[in-house]
Design goal:
With about 250 residues, the chain is α+β, with helices and mostly antiparallel strands. About 35% of the residues lie in helices and about 25% in strands. The strands form 3 sheets. The chain has a 5-stranded antiparallel beta sheet with strand order 10-1-2-11-12, covered by helices on one side. A hairpin with a 5-residue loop joins strand 8 and strand 9. Helix 1 crosses helix 2, helix 3 runs antiparallel to helix 4 and helix 4 packs across helix 5. The longest helix has 22 residues. InterPro entries: Ntn_hydrolases_N (IPR029055), Proteasome_sua/b (IPR001353), UCP009120_prtse (IPR016545). This is Peptidase.
Length: about 250
Amino acid sequence: MTYCAAIRLKEGMVFASDTRTNAGVDHISTFRKLYQYGVEGERFIVLQTAGSLATSQAVFNKLQNDIDQRLESNLNTVPTLFDAAQMVGECMREKMNHAKKVANSSVDGAFTSSFMLGGQIKGQPPELYMIYPAGNCIKATEDTPFFQLGESKYGKPILDRSVSYNTDVRHAARALMLSFDSTIQSNLSVGMPIDFILYDNDSLTMPTGRRIDENDEYFNSIRHQWSEELRRILVELPKCPDGYWG
């Protein structure tokens, strides 16, 4: 299991992915699930994944090889982000079908991956896409400004309550940190370090991003304050009126 989330806002975008991959309680590994592509000043693209690690890595490798070999069509040359999402979807289906053929299987489940692709190309608005295992995709809107992959249920309530299209991008980044903290607290299959990227719309820069581990001072300060404030507010909530419980 994994947890990835991406938020598209009026002023910027935030992307985050955990790095834990496990095949049982005694086999836990760390793999990157968030990759950045682009050309400084011309385009910025982030790709995140959840699902079959083998399929995901095959897709990442193919996309990077196409860039390195300077093929006519690659993530650094496609005219729109929608075309980029279509390219990822087609590549994913190709790799899934190949894996099924090699394994002599007709079942998709063991080879399934999903992706999120977001960013901006010069002269175009920022966009965020969810790419499904079938290869089709949907785009984030002002009404639905964020997408999640993997173990999403524990962190979703925080984003639902605190993030809208007009939310300040750095406020949204804090909310996303707490979304990950809640998920990590409730599900051992999601774990640190967490890869974070924050992008200011129209900057067309290639952010260095940040890898947050267990010793990150700022992350630990807000997660501890959040926990303390939740306990305090619970105590301060109005008492139940007499007879409320029957």
